[in-house]
């Protein structure tokens, strides 16, 4: 089994920054794509950013130029650096990983709340 644990959420003022982390542990041989999604109240979960095992990245238009996704494969960890935060970025952020290992599959973290408010 594989667990993903997120950290780094919290309350920040508009224009501020936060860095989210998501560490994977368990029976892991290799991790392919890793990503961040978010879900605001009353809305569908949406893709924020994704990074492949080769380091290629893709971002939602709403966060391009403000958010940066990165990964450390030695630590099985994915990061999301969020700058110039806006109130509309408020949501629960979830990490996601496509894991090859004891039980190959797509795993999700439990979510971390990000609130952007003055």
Properties at a glance:
seven-stranded mixed beta sheet, 118 residues, globular, four-stranded antiparallel beta sheet, mainly beta
Plain-language structure description:
- The chain is mostly beta strands.
- It is 0% helix and 60% strand.
- It contains no helices and eleven strands.
- It has strands at residues 2-7, 10-12, 18-26, 28-39, 46-51, 57-59, 67-72, 77-82, 91-101, 105-108, 112-116.
- The strands form two sheets. Strands 2, 4, 5, 6, 9, 10 and 11 form a seven-stranded mixed sheet that branches. The protein has a four-stranded antiparallel sheet with strand order 1-3-8-7, with no helix packed on it.
- The radius of gyration is 14 Å and the shape is globular.
- The N and C termini lie far apart (40 Å).
Reconstruct the topology from this structure.
Blueprint: E1 2-7, E2 10-12, E3 18-26, E4 28-39, E5 46-51, E6 57-59, E7 67-72, E8 77-82, E9 91-101, E10 105-108, E11 112-116
Parallel strand pairs: 2-11
Antiparallel strand pairs: 1-3, 3-8, 4-5, 4-9, 5-6, 7-8, 9-10, 9-11
Provide a concise account of the structure shown.
The chain is mainly beta and 118 residues long. The protein has strands at 2-7, 10-12, 18-26, 28-39, 46-51, 57-59, 67-72, 77-82, 91-101, 105-108, 112-116.
- Alpha-carbon distance between the termini? 40 Å
Counting helices, strands and paired strands, the structural category is mainly beta
Please give the largest β-sheet. Answer: 7 strands, mixed
Question: What number is the mean pLDDT?
Answer: 96
Give the number of helices: 0
State the helicity in percent bands: under 10%
Tell me, briefly, the overall form. globular
Low-confidence stretches: none
**Beta strand count:** 11
- Reading the helices and strands in chain order gives EEEEEEEEEEE
Based on CA atoms alone, the radius of gyration comes out at 14 Å
Portion in beta strands: over 45%
């Amino acid at each position: 089994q594989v667990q993903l644990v997120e950290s780094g959420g919290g309350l920040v003022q508009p224009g501020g920054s936060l860095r989210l982390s998501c560490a994977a542990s368990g029976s892991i041989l290799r991790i392919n794509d890793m990503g961040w999604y978010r879900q605001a109240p009353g809305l569908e979960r949406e893709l924020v950013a994704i990074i492949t095992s080769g380091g290629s990245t893709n971002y939602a238009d709403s966060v391009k130029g403000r958010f940066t996704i990165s990964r450390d494969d030695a630590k099985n960890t994915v990061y999301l650096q969020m700058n110039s935060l806006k109130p509309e970025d408020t949501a629960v952020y979830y990490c996601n990983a496509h894991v090859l290992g004891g039980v190959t599959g797509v795993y999700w973290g439990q979510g971390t709340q990000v609130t952007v408010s003055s």
